[in-house]
Amino acid sequence: MADVVGFYETFGAGSAAEPDMEDHIAAELEFMGGLALREACALADDEPDTLAVTRGVERAFLTDHLGRWAEAFAGAVAGATPERLHAAAAALLAAWIAAEVEALGAVPERVLLPEEAERV
């Protein structure tokens, strides 16, 4: 978890408000949201160096953290609820993570759900 906190502190996000919540899905998505805003500003202000650094941080964060487990998390949420809204939100999360991983060239070593690991 110290590695996640290191990302947050290095790139100006601080750490999650609650101790032991640094790797919570909300904290990691909030961090990515801040990076997306930084990326949009770099594009709007024509700052290619800032854009390159920001995209590098996004790529590293997806490779080392969010991209490793968010799709499995989304699958678990979708499979655990009969609520269509939760399943749709989970599908959106999985699609967004997959799109970001591809667009940024991230190469996360994905975490498998227990039932997925049994099939491997």
Give keywords.
single chain; 120 residues; mainly alpha; 74% helix; 0% strand
Overview of this structure, please?
The two termini are 27 Å apart. The chain has one domain (2-119). With 120 residues, it is mostly helical. The protein is built from five helices and no strands.
The gist of it:
The chain is mainly alpha-helical.
Number of strands: 0
Number of domains: 1
User: Which class best fits the helix and strand makeup?
Assistant: mainly alpha
**Form type:** globular
Radius of gyration: 15 Å
Q: Please summarize the sheet with the most strands.
A: none
Helix-strand topology string:
HHHHH
Count every helix, treating DSSP H or I runs of 4 or more residues as helices.
Answer: 5
User: pLDDT average, as an integer?
Assistant: 88
Oligomer: single chain
Low-pLDDT runs = none
Distance between the termini: 27 Å
Percent of residues in beta strands? under 5%
Helix percentage range: over 70%
SSE order and pairing:
Layout lengths: L1 H9 L14 H20 L3 H33 L3 H21 L9 H6 L1
Helix pairs in contact: 2-3, 3-4
